[in-house]
Amino acid sequence: MSEADPRRWKALVFIALAQLMVVLDATIVNIALPSAQEDLGISDGNRQWVITAYALAFGGLLLFGGRIADLWGRKRTFVTGLIGFAVASALGGAATGEAMMLGARALQGVFGALLAPAALSLLAVMFTDAKERAKAFGIYGAIAGGGGAVGLILGGFLTEYLNWRWTFFVNIPFAVIAALGAYFVISEPAGTRNRSPLDIPGVVLSTLGLVTLVYGFTRAESEGWSDSVTIGAFVASVVLLAAFVVTEARVKSPLLPLRVLTERNRGGVYLSLGLAIIAMFGLFLFLTYYLQIVKGYSPVKTGFAFLPMIVGMIVGSTQLGARLMTRVPPRLLMAPGFLLAALGMLLLTQLEIGTSYAGLILPAQLMLGLGMGTAFMPAMSLSTHGVEARDAGVASAMVNTSQQVGGAIGTALLNTIAASATSAYLVDHVAEGGNLKLVQAQAMVEGYTSAIWWAVGILALAALIAATFINTGHQGGPGASGDADSAEGTEGEVKIPVMAH
């Protein structure tokens, strides 16, 4: 058994801080966007690119970032990612026009793609004891799930009381503290690097394939699903990703060894987690609009309205998930977790203009948070399940990729469903006369609830995939993995060489 790193818990603080910064950035800019758009003179047609530029760079380069972490060293990649992210954030905060803003967002995405897989793979190689691993991944899972909602609160505060520029500048202290902490505290286990030469065709095909996939979904949101460029992007992404899989099966040192994907437990995690994120990101968007436009909440009040979900996430991850992960098989946490979240989502299909926050939205959010937190925790740990240390970065990148692509798909897919339901409602009811403002508000709510029904179905599918694909035993040391008898090399643990002193 490898000797544990004595400074691993201190290291977790800095890894968690960096992860929080990356996750915050996915939503913090959403609330600041209207003010930034006005200040910088960004057109309505181009404003989505402030979000999309980040998503494309981040989603497209994650696998490359994960492989760089395995090749170059996770600590070095992590610190480089943090410094680059801080510089890109400073540029975004100081932006004087549209081009500078979009460039800064793309740059944030590039360094985020280095940072995120390096953070998760550092956890995978530093925490080898089953119970400690459960706690560490519980904290990480809570941040990965709840950070987006924290971003809404912080974004509201900064935009309302300071200035939209602070939604960028706030990243700088996070990044500097995490980089200094990582530099002085983190020490990687020896012999865990993968020094095979870089698979350049794999890098090009995976990056182009993921970028065109994410672009296809974001384009569908603004131009519709029948738009020729949207269809072209989807066709191109299928061709490129198929070519990527064929290439990976043939090259000697693949960017993404297919063994990382084909192990059924990891495959089940990537798939179910991606689906769950589709549902969750769509919900963030609709609830934000519902509370601000229909209910008339301020940005700060809207942010605070998401608190029950954050509390649920933290309790689900650190109390339920982390405590039970060493006792029960992951599928018995993930499937019920996703189902509980689906029930919370089901409550939200009852939204109306006059819905009581305390009577319906608060309990629905608590159920969603508890369910997602409980499911995220074992999912984050299983994403590097049984993986060789040399593949830890790429396996970590895959879980980030499924989340990122899921987020892009969720926002576009559910937004499109909501928009068409809203239009249909308006067509049916405007002719009837009455208060136009009231009809418009009702049409918006009709759109949100139609999309939320889809989110319920998507979460139920995530639960089904988790229940059928994931068959490993609990992650609790000797014999944990069901068919393995000894503690040495059980499937439930990452195979880590002995720690260097």
TrEMBL record:
Keywords: Antibiotic resistance, Cell membrane, Membrane, Transmembrane, Transmembrane helix, Transport. The keyword Oxidoreductase does not apply. The chain crosses the membrane at residues 12-33, 48-65, 77-95, 107-127, 139-158, 164-186, 198-217, 229-247, 268-291, 303-320, 332-351, 451-470. InterPro entries: EmrB-like, MFS, MFS_dom, MFS_trans_sf, Sugar_transporter_CS. It is a multi-pass membrane protein. Residues 11-475 form the Major facilitator superfamily (MFS) profile domain. Residues 476-501 are annotated as: Disordered. Its main location: membrane. It comes from the Bacteria. It is found in: Cell membrane. This is DHA2 family efflux MFS transporter permease subunit. The lineage of its organism: Bacteria, Bacillati, Actinomycetota, Actinomycetes, Kitasatosporales.
